[in-house]
From TrEMBL:
Residues 33-339 form the Aminotransferase class V domain. This is Alanine--glyoxylate aminotransferase. Gene3D superfamilies: Aspartate Aminotransferase, domain 1, Type I PLP-dependent aspartate aminotransferase-like (Major domain). Its cofactor is pyridoxal 5'-phosphate. PROSITE patterns: AA_TRANSFER_CLASS_5 (PS00595). Keywords: Aminotransferase, Pyridoxal phosphate, Transferase. It comes from Halochromatium glycolicum. It comes from the Bacteria. One of its GO terms (molecular function) is L-serine-pyruvate transaminase activity.
């Protein structure tokens, strides 16, 4: 077969990411490519850093997008901050906490793993026990918004605890940024990383990060060089920092058009207003929840630990996980997420992230799920469920 231009179907993305990308972001991506050291491009990079500071609620000088996906943001924080021999406490309540553990051991750190149940927030008492048992610990790491389960942890509280025991903090905010409250300076988060394709509604492939002065001081005091050349912040900074203009030196070719997209996405977030975006995610979560519950479905996470942007739903007994997701995709062009890890086959993950968090998506999801569940022999009242969701949307 002779390949022809790839024309993707138009889907509605209500999984764990990527989320729907706004047409404004897609058209920004198609603008003419310019050189990555072009003064006009450099000026745009400066704006991206400012817009990211607004989104992260920080004044941190070291705030920038890593030219690679969220996982590379994670790796950037760990390879730079963890020196061989450092004790690092990782709080694990899902898949992404598990990946942090991998990062610690590969960077030569001594891992102390503190597990909390899947589908629950990180338990601060368990963290405090570990901090007492390991006075030598230097770093505490955890995921604010665990996309594998839909649980939201209390970043302010966990960071405060870590600081009381003289530890720096690394926080995964990949799914949190733009979707639920995150106060990098207000809570004293030392290092944070995010992703472009979740609540920022941009294309995948960029990882905003922000590190405060304490984190930068730890990196500068390293005795061993950062083992990754590409992610070594000492080198990347020479490219992203403008001290007076033309000192910017080549490190790697920035993904020029992808950064146009991020710039547009961040601009849209600022135009909407960060707090309004958080409120929108919360209101839409309530509407989806009311509709799902009226369909007889149950959310996995206890009410006060739920993320608005990722809703984990128990799959009812006798319903085949894969068939439902396949029918949603084939018939309604609607993508929802499967369960990961311990939750595989047991839960669906319904995302309401960024541009995906819209009233029409909620109604599509409720009506499509209702129709398919009925077809598969469940007796559900789709009309009543839609009315519940609509009522919450009109509040
Ligand atoms: C999606 C996600 C990541 C990884 O981001 P990629 O862009 O897929 O590399 C890391 N942490 C969390 C919590 C995520 O949701």
């Amino acid at each position: 077969m002779i390949p022809t231009s790839f024309q993707p179907p138009v889907r509605t993305l209500m999984g764990p990411g990527p989320a729907d990308v706004h047409p404004r972001v897609l058209s920004a991506l198609a603008r003419p490519t310019i050189g990555h050291l072009d003064p006009r491009f450099v000026a745009m990079m400066e704006e991206i850093k400012d817009l990211l500071r607004t989104a992260f609620r920080t004044e941190n000088a070291l705030t920038m997008p890593v030219s690679a996906p969220g996982s590379a943001g994670m790796e950037t924080c760990f390879v730079n901050l963890v020196e061989p021999g450092d004790t690092v406490i990782v709080c694990v309540n899902g898949v992404f906490g598990g990946r942090m553990c991998e990062n610690v051991t590969r960077a030569g750190g001594k891992l102390v793993r503190v597990d909390s149940p899947w589908g629950r927030a990180v338990d601060p008492n368990r963290l405090e026990d570990a901090l007492k048992q390991h006075p030598e610990a230097r770093i505490v790491a955890f995921v604010q918004a665990e996309t594998s389960t839909g649980a939201s942890s209390d970043t302010g509280q966990l960071v405060g605890l870590a600081h009381r025991y003289d530890c720096l903090t690394i926080v995964d905010a990949v799914t949190a940024l733009g979707g639920s409250p995150l106060e990098v300076d207000g809570w004293g988060v030392d290092a944070v990383y995010a992703g472009s394709q979740k609540c920022l509604s941009c294309t995948p492939g960029l990882a905003p990060i922000s590190l405060n002065e304490r984190a930068v001081a730890k990196i500068k005091a390293r005795e061993t060089p950062v083992q990754s050349w590409f992610l070594d912040l000492n080198l990347v900074l020479g490219y992203w920092t403008s001290d007076g203009g033309n000192r910017r030196s080549y490190h790697h070719t920035a993904p020029v058009n992808a950064l146009y997209g991020l710039h547009e996405a961040l601009l849209m977030l600022t135009e909407e207003g960060l707090e309004k975006a958080w409120a929108r995610h919360q209101q839409h979560h309530i509407a989806l929840r009311d509709g799902l519950e009226a369909l007889g479905l149950e959310l996995v996470v206890p009410a006060d630990e739920r993320l608005p942007q990722l809703n984990a739903v128990s799959i009812p007994g006798g319903v085949d996980d894969a068939s439902v997701r396949r029918l949603l995709l084939e018939r309604y062009n609607l993508e929802i997420g499967a369960g990961l890890g311990d939750f595989a086959g047991k839960v669906w993950r319904i995302g309401l992230m960024g541009f995906s968090s819209r009233a029409e998506n909620i109604l599509l999801c409720i009506s499509a799920l209702g129709a398919i569940l009925n077809e598969l022999g469940q007796r559900v009242d789709t009309t009543a469920a839609l009315a519940q969701a609509q009522q919450a949307l009109s509040q």
